[in-house]
Write a structure and sequence with these properties.
By secondary structure, the protein is α/β, with parallel strands linked by helices. It contains ten helices and eight strands.
Amino acid sequence: MNKRISLNACATFNLNHPMRPARLVLAAVCCTLLATSGCALLDAKQREWIFQPSQRSWQNADMSGMEDIWIAFDSRLSGEAVRLHALWLPANQADAPVLLYLHGARWNVAGSSQRIRRMQSLGFSVLAIDYRGFGQSSAGLPSEQLAIEDARAAWDWLAGQHPRKDRYLFGHSLGGAIAIALASEVDDERGTLVEGTFSRMTDVIGSMRWGWLPVGPFITQTFDSQERVARIGSPLLVVHGSSDRLIPSALGKQLYAAAQSPKRWVLIEGGSHHNTNAIGLPQYRVALQELFDLPAAASAP
């Protein structure tokens, strides 16, 4: 039963029916249960629509040279034991900085293999994780808070494995929102890079053809990066494609405007939601050297 039906049911209980106190209490309890069920269904549908979790194998995936990593932890949010699958692609330089790669909706680490390689070509050792519900990670329906918790577990794993190396965060699309959330909570990141991401989920919905609908109050997965980004103290690189039809570049620019300095906005002319990383790699290299002051060897092609 959905929320509208629940509210109508409550109206039926309360109108035109004189009730004894006990019946009023029972009616209130019933309305609460009905409304809660509607909210739970609404939340689950949003999570399915936003994350589109995938366990599929991708035909163009090239994972040669990548090591399977397993990150186990006990979730404080769900109370369950979690096992995340990740891919580790080391850089050619032993002293290279490390990058936590956070993919977007639908594309698990296998489907993200080409973008992972491109980030490694910029001089990083890359750890790319699958959130719960994706790939070989623990089953379950992802949520904003669960994905952030997964990213934090991977971040802590990197700190334990590479305590003396600079660590960076990278997120594509929805992964950019997760990266910003994590960066706003930790204080040991050297820098944050996001590509094709957005200001907040309500803005994404508002940019769609049915965005005029007043759905804001019902959004449970807010991904309010615009509020969080102001709390990031490290340098921030915001990259967007000028031809991105899924996440308009205006939302990336809006996010950039809310961030504190040092920061850099890079618009890749002709870049779409999926090819900006490929065609914009030279601009990535320049931005990494100028914003993050990476050594020349770390940004060599």
